[in-house]
Design goal:
It contains 8 helices and 8 strands, in the order αβαβαβαβαβαβββαα. It is globular. The strands form 2 sheets. It has a 6-stranded parallel β-sheet, sandwiched between helices. Strands 1-2 form a two-stranded parallel ribbon. The longest helix has 17 residues. Strand 3, helix 4 and strand 4 form a beta-alpha-beta unit. By secondary structure, it is an alpha/beta fold. The termini are far apart.
Length: about 300
């Protein structure tokens, strides 16, 4: 099987709506560049139809501007390669050669110093959970790791959370949408979208290797290749929790912190796969910004 010898876990196609006729908005460009340089992406190929504004030559130039070598990427074109069937054959041939160049990954033991985690929440966060989320944030940042939160996330105005971290309400973003941080620590990403999936797509482009999502009882799509750990808090009122939740936080803030640490470690060490990833319930949506429209 292609890539199996190199322990490639999956091939992910990041399908999007920004093809022919789209404008070259910075959110789209930054999102794509973020994924092309993502630490979890061992090998990447760009596929064009052939008539879009952001054609392959456009991306070659942008890669050079970012200090990346276009020759390290694969390139395919439906029009130039002679149709879909020939293009698919060319894509498979390129990945066969490129995957053979990869070295087998080596497992290492590491702490929070080397982790990059995104965090998202929905709605109001209860006090016990806010304290535990602030504590895990402190642990990661203090260890030299990276944690990224959208700047409009409910946590950024949660009194318990921001007081525990000694930050202000709605602090100015330290990171542009879909940009990868140059320094570790806690970062607020400027969120250019309104929807959960657009936020998740931008958060993934920042280079995170796990997204910790405090979820409601509604199912939200996961990411095509970044694990999304869905967490919910036990309200203690007997309400049913959705079957797609990976972890139900219970007990004191310290107990909840311990539960988070165990589950995060399990996902990062690949001994646990989030439920939505197992089901293939995934999504990917490039934002058009706060004032973008579809015609």
């Amino acid at each position: 099987t292609l890539g199996q010898a190199q322990q490639i876990s999956r091939f992910a196609a990041l399908m999007h709506t920004e093809g022919c006729g789209n404008s070259t908005e910075p959110e789209f460009i930054d999102t794509m560049l973020g994924y092309l340089s993502h630490p979890m992406a061992a090998t990447c190929l760009l596929l064009e139809h052939g008539c879009e504004k952001t054609h392959n030559d456009f991306w070659r130039q942008r890669l050079r501007e970012e200090g990346l070598d276009p020759e390290q990427f694969g390139w395919a074109s439906v029009q130039m390669d002679g149709g879909i069937k020939r293009t698919l054959a060319a894509i498979k041939a390129w990945f066969t050669v490129d995957c053979a160049k990869l070295t087998e990954p080596r497992e290492v033991t590491s702490g929070f110093k080397n982790v990059r985690i995104g965090m998202m929440t929905e709605g109001k966060v209860d006090e016990q959970t806010a304290i535990s989320l602030a504590a895990i944030t402190k642990q990661i940042a203090a260890a030299g790791g990276t944690l990224i939160i959208p700047d409009d996330d409910p946590l950024t105005i949660d009194g318990t959370f921001i007081e525990a971290l000694q930050i202000g309400r709605r602090e100015r973003p330290t990171l542009a949408y879909a940009h990868q941080p140059a320094q570790p620590g806690l970062h607020l990403m400027a969120n250019a979208g309104w929807q959960w999936l657009e936020t998740l797509t931008g958060l993934g482009a920042t280079g995170v290797e796990l997204v910790l999502a405090l979820a409601s009882r509604r199912t939200r799509p996961s990411h095509p290749f970044i694990p999304v750990l869905r967490v919910s808090a036990d309200a203690g009122n007997g309400d049913e929790v959705h079957e797609d939740i990976d972890l139900i936080l219970r007990g004191s803030p310290q107990q909840r912190l311990n539960q988070l640490g165990v589950e995060i470690s399990a996902v990062l060490s690949r001994t646990m796969k989030p439920k939505l990833s197992q089901k293939g319930d995934i999504g990917f949506q490039v934002t058009r910004g706060r004032f973008g429209v579809s015609l």
